Amino acid sequence: MDAAGMWACLPRDLLVEILRPLDRTAVFRCAAACKPWRRAIMRNASCLGPGPALLLGFFHTSSYVHHPMRRPHHAPGPFADVLTAAAVDWTNYAALFQTRSPAAPFFLPPAAAAAAGGDGGGIGEALYTRPLSSRDGLVLLGGRAAAADLCLCDAVTGSCRVIPAAAPEVSEAGASYVLVTGGDDSEVLILAVKHGEDIKAGMTYQIFSTASGAWGPVERSARLVEEEGMGPAYRNGEPKDVVVCRGSVVYWLGVVVVGGRSRRRRRAFAVDVRTRRAWATELPDKYVALDCRTWYCSLALAATSGGDGQLSLVVSLPSRQIEVWVLVGDGDGEWTLRRTIDVQDLLPEDEEISLGRVLWLRTFCPRSGCMLGDIDGHHLVIPVDEDIPRPVQTIIGSRVSCYPYEMDWSTYVSRMKYF
């Protein structure tokens, strides 16, 4: 130790051996201790932090709660477990409408919440409280009005960026937003799609690039329904109904009306934000018709892990089974049943789910390849590419939309310079 008070660091090899048995949360706490430790961890990331500890947290919003002044609910930072937060009584709707307490069904890490105005400072006083989309550690927040400006927050660093609203042709009646990021690329694309329109003849959309700092022109996609005699077509709007594949292809679950409202067919609609190509994809035959046989099934879109990023369809059935289908090829590709999961196997041995109960799928986490669902008070993380699901506890209720934010180990390492 020198006269300036600098302390001698442990040899790198010895430090790595000490850190090797620790979980990733503990490793990250150590990375924040000093630069020598941080450098040692970054250079040995491949052998540290056992287990895929990927889920950092979730942003929640209830479809029954529309209080314009509701604030973000603060959660611990990126080094702590945020899957267990303050409990919310989802049955007390009157209190949910009136309260401004921290137990509101939204939350941000402390730094991001302060920057976004949740602490009475930063960008604005509780201006941005509606989660619109999340991906790769970023969350897009909306303001009080449908056409208000947007706020892009980095959940790790706490940095926030105000983005102007999309053009009135897209956002005036409300828009759906999708964050599109190419892995760890610095550029982030925001896809804004006109809400509630008949997309049979094409989707109206606009794309924002953080590289250029501006919205592109309002565009109209190619026709999405070619068959004669078909009625209007619509996109579904829940987080579980949208997924990004191969870094640039955005898929939505949707329906096409056939004849009358009593006859509807499910389809997946897609647009590639890089090439502007748009198309529709049929679902597996047994799930195409939206009728009494499939009404009580819960469907969600996912993407296979790895470089291929193929479109997957996850179906939860009343028979307590989960089916994972994978589309081989775009558009006219073929669906293959990849695996079947027994919901009962996800639960403790002393818990039994009655036949006919459905595990409701809520959202897909692209980095971990996990689907989040809930059944009878049990909230489960289901790896769609693995045969061994991992149960976890969350605060999600049955009337809540869920937007996850997460990053994998490589992204953590690349962002350690911010800590």
Automatic annotation (TrEMBL):
InterPro entries given in the database record: DUF7595, F-box-like_dom_sf, F-box_dom
F-box domain span: 7-43
Residue ranges the record marks as coiled coil: none
Record domain DUF7595: where: 131-378
Protein name according to UniProt: F-box domain-containing protein
Species name: Urochloa decumbens
